[in-house]
Design brief:
Length: 265
């Protein structure tokens, strides 16, 4: 059985001293590839060094919406340059809108729109962060697609209602579920996990955040994506093996991931 964790942040300081042990644990749980997301382009050096060390790691480059005040044309050029020059960059992001922790919606919309445009130019999908902003985000993406054409991508760490989920599916996006889907009170998210078509489904940890049950409240890590996969499989009344195969195939399709040996190198 193979699993792909489609959203990690293992460059954070909490992992620095134990990356080798982290890899041993994700391998034990069948995790064969990871997609490392990016909060801001300055992380490129850190993340690329991790990918040098662990060939099963591919990554994105982009600017998180909570960093949108940092957006400049030069920063956009840096994102595009990294995406074009490094074959391990498989996506732009994470980008999107977050109205839970910030109110600078116009700055966020500008940074998001520009990163959608970069993604089109470099022919890569977008990794989209959306918190308390589903209606605004759907409206912006719909406008962008009407003016510029389709934009593949994934709604990462999805926590929306089934109605919001359907709107994102209608835009052509994949939907990725995190540890939130394992939480007892996450009924709308669980309903969304049942709604998403098989060919649009992904799983992730978003580590070090949002550790799934039975490790809720602890630091999250890639090996825990198995708990997410188990819960989604149960909700969809399918085997874990089928869920793993489906989400692994979907991740490789969306991100054009290379196939690597299960044990890495």
């Amino acid at each position: 059985m193979q699993l792909i964790d489609t959203h990690v942040h293992i460059n954070f300081d909490v992992f620095e001293a134990e990356l080798a042990a982290l890899k041993e644990r994700w391998q034990e749980q069948g995790v064969v590839q990871l997609v490392h997301s990016c909060v801001e382009p300055q992380e490129y050096g850190q993340i690329s060094a991790i990918a040098d060390r662990f060939p099963e790691v591919s990554f994105a480059v982009g600017l998180h919406p909570l960093e949108a005040e940092k957006w400049t044309a030069q920063l956009g050029s840096d994102i595009e340059r990294h995406a074009q020059s490094d074959s391990r960059v498989v996506a732009i992001g994470e980008t999107g809108l977050d109205l839970y922790k910030a109110e600078n919606v116009e700055q966020q919309k500008t940074a998001f729109w520009e990163q959608l445009a970069i993604a089109q130019r470099v022919n890569k999908p977008v990794i989209i962060h959306c918190r308390d902003a589903a209606e605004e985000l759907v409206a912006l993406v719909r406008q962008f697609q009407q003016e510029n054409g389709a934009t593949p991508g994934v709604m990462h760490c999805w926590a929306g209602t089934p109605e919001q989920t359907q709107k994102c599916l209608d835009l052509g996006f994949y939907i990725s579920f995190s540890g939130i889907v394992t939480f007892k009170n996450a009924k709308p998210v669980q309903a969304s996990a049942q709604l998403v078509p098989e060919q649009r489904l992904l799983v992730e940890t978003d580590c070090p955040f949002l550790a799934p049950v039975p490790n809720r409240g602890k630091r999250n890590e890639p090996s825990y994506v198995r708990y997410v996969a188990e819960t989604v499989a149960q909700l969809r009344d399918i085997s874990l093996e089928r869920l793993a195969q489906t989400t692994t195939n979907n991740a490789r399709e969306l991100f054009s991931l290379p196939r690597v040996p299960e044990t890495g190198t």
